[in-house]
Specification:
Helix content is about 35%, strand content about 10%. The chain contains 5 helices and 4 strands; from the N terminus they run ββααααββα.
């Protein structure tokens, strides 16, 4: 008995629909080959996982681990090739925080747009504040409010 999978001829991430005219029945081997071709052409990490999973190279647990890792990365471009195929030696060099706090987080659309903006050196630089009493330049609003401005030691001297 042959098992068939439904496959989108034009992938949904390229504007494909669930219309019957965009669906095709493929065997597991054909389905894996289709996702390999899509991955090589467009570089979508989900096609990579489908290809490797359908061909038996990685397990479901490994797929889920990679999905959580990719989806939770701060500033992740989910349509780009994953870090292990880009020639990057380690994932620290792709602007990824050191802890695992971000893995598996579900982000709102607003946060996704925010994280897609380019950041110098991986973070937004602090705004600098100038204290008119001691003439010091201070980084960060909370530090300025606590030690400078109206609370400055030099105030009134």
């Amino acid at each position: 008995m042959t098992i068939y999978h439904k496959h989108h001829i034009i992938p949904k991430y390229l504007g494909g629909t669930d219309e019957p005219s965009n669906l095709i029945l493929l065997t597991i081997e054909e389905h894996a080959a289709a996702h390999e071709k899509l991955y090589n052409e467009y570089g979508n990490w989900e096609d990579y996982l489908a290809w490797k999973g359908l061909s038996g190279h990685i397990s479901k647990d490994e797929i889920n681990k990679i999905k959580l890792s990719e989806a939770g990365k701060k500033g992740a471009n989910l349509s780009a090739k994953p870090w292990w195929t880009n020639g990057i030696k380690n994932k620290r060099s792709i602007n990824c925080p050191g802890d695992d706090w971000h893995k598996g987080r579900i982000l709102s659309e607003v946060h996704k747009l925010y994280y897609k903006q380019p950041r110098p050196y991986g973070r937004v630089p602090k705004k600098k504040y100038h204290c008119q009493h001691c003439n010091k330049i201070v980084g960060g609003a909370s530090n300025f409010k606590r030690w400078h401005g109206d609370n400055c030691k030099e105030k009134g001297k």
